[in-house]
Design a protein that fits this description.
Length: 164
């Protein structure tokens, strides 16, 4: 599936904020999360996230239509916080585009575009997220991946795209 990644900036941050509500709704199946009195999920400040120089992300478009987002940061459970390490913290694909290989293609594009040591942590208690990342990182993946249990039944995968 052909897609385009548009860097998240202050000008398009509102798109991430809108999509983030759907993302939290999806993961609240595994991580119980209630809405506030306005009917919105409260998460960390996406304005603060964007203003952190260590963070970056992209809105995913398919044929000029918003299809999801991907976020990268430097919050680690296994790797150390150094200049050469990145964490793919969130990836979200709208239902209309799920099951078509888009999330995998986006992840592979992100990894190959940034020479780094990577950490990826599936959504806790989400069997589908865990299986997705196992499929991406262990089947025909060009980088040697290591699985770590950093907390009881919580896993992180690490690999390096440096020197490839």
């Amino acid at each position: 599936m052909k897609f385009e990644l548009i860097k998240i900036t202050n000008e398009n941050l509102y798109i991430l904020k809108n999509l983030f509500q759907l993302y939290i709704h999806d993961i609240s199946k595994e991580l119980p999360w209630d809405v506030n009195s306005d009917g919105l999920f409260e998460a960390y400040s996406l304005d603060d996230w964007l203003n952190n120089k260590n963070n970056f992300g992209y809105i995913i478009y398919v044929e000029n239509i918003v299809a999801g987002f991907v976020m990268v940061d430097k919050e680690f459970k296994v790797l150390e916080n150094t200049n050469n390490n990145l964490n793919l913290s969130e990836i979200f694909i709208l239902n209309n585009y799920k099951g078509k290989g888009l999330a995998k293609a986006v992840a592979l594009k992100i990894f190959s575009s940034h020479s780094a040591n990577w950490e990826v942590r599936p959504v806790p208690k989400s069997e589908s997220a865990y299986k997705f990342w196992e499929n991406v990182l262990f089947k025909n993946f060009p980088y040697k991946t290591t699985k770590h249990e950093w907390k009881e039944n919580r896993f992180a995968f690490t690999f390096s795209t440096k020197n490839k």
